[in-house]
Amino acid sequence: MLKKKYIRGPLKVLSFAVCFAAIFLLLQPVFIPKNESSAVANQFYDFAEENLDVLFLGASQMLSGVNAQKLTEEYGISSHNFGAGVQHPAITLYYLREALKTQTPKTVMVEVCEIFDPIEDLRDAPTGERVAWSYLPMKLTSEKINSYREVTGGNRLQAAEFCLTPLLVYHSRWNSIWVEDVKRLCGGYPDIKRGYIELTRVAPQTLDYIGDEEGEEKAIPPENDDALSAIAATCEENGIALVFFKAPVARWTRAESKVVKAYMAEHGYTYLELNDHLDEIGIDPETDFCNTLHLNASGANKTTDFLANYLKKRS
Amino acid sequence: MSLTSIAFLAFAAVVLFVYYLTPGKYRWAVLLVASIAFYISFSVVGIILLIVLSLVAYFCALQIEKTQKRQEMWLTEHSDTDKETKKAAKRRFKGVQRRYVILTIVLCIGSLFLLKYYGPFASEINRLFGTRFWTAENLLVPLGISFYSLQIIGYVIDVSRGVATAERNPLKVILYASFFLSIMQGPFNRWNDLMPQIVTEEKKKLEFRQFRLAILRIIWGYIKKMCIADQVGLIASEVFGHYEKYEGLGLLLGIFCFAVQLYADFSGYMEIVNGIGDLLGIKMSENFRQPFFSRNISEFWQKWHISLGAWLKDYVFYPLLKSRWLQRFGKWLTKHFGKGLGRRLPTYIGMLILWTLIGAWHGAGFNYVFSVGLLQFLYIFLGEITAPVSERVKKFLHIKDSNFFWHAFQSIRCTVLMIFAWVFFNSRTFMDAIAMLGRIFAVQGLGFAQLKSQINSVFLSEGTTLTGLWQTWILYVMLCTAVLLLADAIHERGGSVRLWMEKRPYVVRLAFYLALTFTILIFGAYGSQYNSSDFIYFQF
Amino acid sequence: MSREEIYERLNAVFRDVFDDETLTVNDSTTAHDVEGWDSLRHITLLAAVEDEFDIEFSMGQTVSMKNVGEMVDYIEKEA
Fold first, then answer.
1. Do B528 and A178 touch (CB under 8 A)?
2. Among A89, A91, A95, residue whose Cα is nearest residue A45
3. What are phi and psi of A56, to 5 degrees?
4. Residue B140 per-residue DSSP state
5. Which positions 60-79 of C are in contact with B (Cβ < 8 Å)?
6. What is the 3-state composition of chain A as percent helix, strand, coil, each rounded to the nearest 5?
7. A241-246 vs A107-111, strand pairing mode
8. For chain B, what are the domain ranges?
9. What is the pLDDT of residues B399-429, one digit of tens each?
């Protein structure tokens, strides 16, 4: 018969530990920086049962530019957007691998707006929003920790802290929490369908692509090249058709497009430059853009129609 | 290692562990090793000076005691001689003792002066007179020298006064000087108070209750430091560092935040070291006794940094007032100007010297000598001179000391005076402080909207270290102030949150522990967003 | 000198230093019991006592004196 005295101590410690863990896990989602990406990730995980025809990967230009809901319902091409507010190619690779755990899409389309961004940007700010939006909504797996570590160039402890206990990393947001954080906590993203984020604002834009300036030629950083190669290899291993594409956007120059086309040709990748088809899509710079970087609902729907035709022609 | 680092927590845990495994009479050695290790973690070279000065003190104390014994023997042998010869002999022996005391003082204060004051002093002379004296730039101020040099002097003086017995073991004197709990920011511990607790055969055990109370005290100290001082300190640093960008209420907010930061930082540190002392079974002097409830500045300094005031009173102020030249001056004054002036003027002179020294102790700069020195003297002096007038006004308005609102008024007045002084304390130079104070009033109105716009456009803008919402920051500053006031109010009434908690049911205590833990976890200034800030009194 | 005699003269000194004709002290009186007996006045008081009885308090006694009783003990011994 255990003496009451000997149970009390450990019991108190246990109750403290349990309460601590509970409060910790309850507070954590309030403190981590979040935006629509979280909802996108959650939605994708919920869709784990269906088998997709097309999986879209990439950053916010894809999320707001491809209406996966329309593609699925009107055209019968079941698709889903799986991305984050910003997504460096190395993170796209992680998202692809994550998706392939539960899905075997026939086609994967990767938006390449961040193809020129060096990974230093992420290494300089390992807990900044760019990294936070991409990683925080994702399920906790060892791949997440490894990918985070590789991408941010940190050590195992930092990666573990970020992935396992982000509250400790973001506790300093106590002075920034506002109503938004709590609202979003309670699933406040009703207007995201299949990862498509509908933006309704209209802001007329002048498009660099059809402007007078050719633009500056940039180089694709080697680490991005590695990431894209890995993406291609993964798709090939799994028998998935891979298409890289560039969504219509105001800030994208012909020079940049030229570099990407050359790169794609060199590696034998399929590349769809939607900015070459603006007339066909019917993009109107006055009505189809939300800001310099994103299409709005009108523009997205037009683009989706075009993509639907493109995909039907391919298959 | 900084007290808010994991390294220090690990260090303290190891020290405690080894301490309680060691038999009672060798525990002091554990503390000595710990103290040396602690000091070396900051500076390997500095420890040499500390050891040298400690050995000087050790030697002088022994010589003094030897002289005292010789004096006793002489008096016993010559018990039948006349009073005059006896007096002469006493004076001779005292002279020998005094020489050892002076040797210690000269070496300690000399080192202190050379390493801490000479450089800035020489630079200033060079600047004013275009001379090119050596400014001791390559000499670093050793850690804690302002504390251990005074502690060593105190020990030797205590032996010469017959208050303490000279220590036979030089290592124990080194321990007294280097004791890791008090070397950085105090408190000043007297030899007779500290050493009997450390050097004892008694094998103290750590009861769980004592352990729990001490841990709670330590946690409270960390909350004060990490959650209060370090956070509001961000506002204070921003405002003091770039005061030209701010004005009016924005400046006042920054200045207020500094006062909160200073109190929380310093008293937080005291809680931590006292808590660790409690864990070791060693009781050290308290340094704070709810200073902001003081009715006047004199009282404030009896409740703020208490051990410094007590040390200066016993080893500087009293000897000064009792010195022959001041006494003779007083008698001369009494003869020519009457008792009133004869008694008060020497005291005021003594006080002026004392306060100048207090100011100078805090730092080698006029802003220190002024803010916590001369200005404080002025406050006290004016207070004393106007005392009869105040009395009459009080009587006229029928104000009683026991009246709560009168006490509140006095406390607020005292706080405002101190905050004003601290503007000078924390500004880089005296002129910066004047400029800052000028900017407070050089605006059209002190409106709330103006405060909000300042916080948003300057505090929280790009290029400052602050982030977040201005509403949250204002609320947070208010919350911190309220917490500090509440804690002090409880202690003023003789209460204790820790003791009260002990008697509550477990659920209440569980909630309390969880609240404390999450307070540190969420509001603590740790992690990549913050650079760990050194404690303010660290550079002394 | 007897303790009563000492106290007679001592009371006079106290009354003079603290400006209070009604003040009377005994063996157990401490600084807390007398209004105005702070650290500043302490030196003035001791100086006055030294003058009255032609004795000298050492620094050790000055700082460690706990109550009037101790003071009187010393006066008894030295005067």
1. no
2. A95
3. -100, 130
4. P
5. 60, 62-64
6. 55, 10, 35
7. parallel
8. 6-205, 218-295+442-535
9. 888 888 999 999 999 999 999 999 999 998 8
Query: DSSP per residue over B93-136, as a string?
Result: HHHHHHHHHHHHHHHHHHHHIIIIIIHHHHHHHHHHH-------
CA distance B413 to chain C (A): 22
Residue of C nearest to B299 (CA): C38
Residue B195 per-residue DSSP state: H
Can you list the domains of chain A with their CATH numbers? Answer: 32-314 (3.40.50.1110)
Contact B100, B194 (CB under 8 A): no
Q: In chain C, how long is the greatest CA-to-CA distance?
A: 30
Q: Which CATH number fits domain C3-78: 2.60.120.10, 1.20.58.220, 1.10.1200.10, 3.30.1370.10?
A: 1.10.1200.10
pLDDT band at A187 (very low <50, low <70, confident <90, very high): low
* B529 CB-near residues (< 8 Å, 6+ apart): A172, B467
Greatest extent of chain A over all pairs of C-alpha atoms, in Å: 89
Output the pLDDT for position B461.
Answer: 63
**To probe the interface with B, which of A6, A124, A158, A175 has the most B CB atoms within 10 Å?**
A175
Would you call A11 an interface residue with chain B, using a CB distance cutoff of 8 Å? no
Of B193, B125, B188, B144, residue with least CA distance to B41: B144
What are the phi and psi torsion angles at A271 (to 5°)? -130, 130
Rounded to a whole number, what is the distance in Å from the CA of B344 to chain C's nearest CA? 9
Tell me which residue in A19, A169, A177 faces B510 most closely, judged by beta carbons: A19
The alpha carbons of chain B give a radius of gyration, in whole angstroms, of 26
Residue B4 or residue A305, greater confidence = A305
Q: Is C56 on the interface with B (CB under 8 A)?
A: no
Q: If you write DSSP's letter for every residue of B263-298 in order, what string do you get? A: HHHHHHHHHHHHHHHHHHT------BS-GGG-SSHH
The span from the CA of B446 to the CA of A179, in Å, is 30
CA distances from A294 to A65, A162, A291 (A): 7, 29, 6
- For the segment B485-533, what is each residue's pLDDT rounded down to a tens digit? 999 999 999 989 999 988 889 999 999 999 999 999 999 988 876 754 5
Q: Which two tokens stand for residue B263?
A: 């109190």
Does A175 sit within 8 Å of B469, measured CB to CB?
A: yes
**Using an 8 Å Cβ cutoff, are B102 and B319 in contact?**
no
Determine contact: B327 vs chain C, CB below 8 A: yes
Per-residue pLDDT at A84: 86
Could you give the residue ranges of the DSSP H alpha helices within C1-79? 3-18, 39-53, 59-64, 68-78
CB atoms within 10 A of CB B478: 10
Dihedral (CA of B510, B511, B516, B519) sign: positive
Q: Tell me the two tokens of residue B455.
A: 């916080």
Residue C22 backbone dihedrals phi, psi, to 5 degrees: -95, 0
Interface of A with B in 149-188 (CB under 8 A): 167-169, 171-178
Element of type H or E holding B50: helix B46-77
